[in-house]
Amino acid sequence: MEKELEAQIECSIEKALIIIGGKWSFLVLRELFDGTKRFGELQKAIQKISPKALTDTLRHLEEHQIVTRTVYATVPVTVEYALTEKGLAFHKILKEMKLWGAQWG
Asked: Which residues contact 71 (CB under 8 A, 6 or more apart)?
């Protein structure tokens, strides 16, 4: 019974990691917890991320319904990113990771 429960937890953790994605996802989410941001704002806030890595990360998060992408018909086109309800639900976990990193990092 205990092994079965362990397997379920491991599976759930694996699912969560697949949904969230790579290392940049955590930093993108951190920025979006403060509110809607444009691509340039995200890139400026996450200094070491390349435009390609940011694009790939945002696409991954959008694909997994963590982030919404809203396009405005302006010249040039304005694109904004915001967290979905699913993305906002991750906030508590990220805060705990921040505390853990502060204590043990």
From this structure: 77, 78, 79
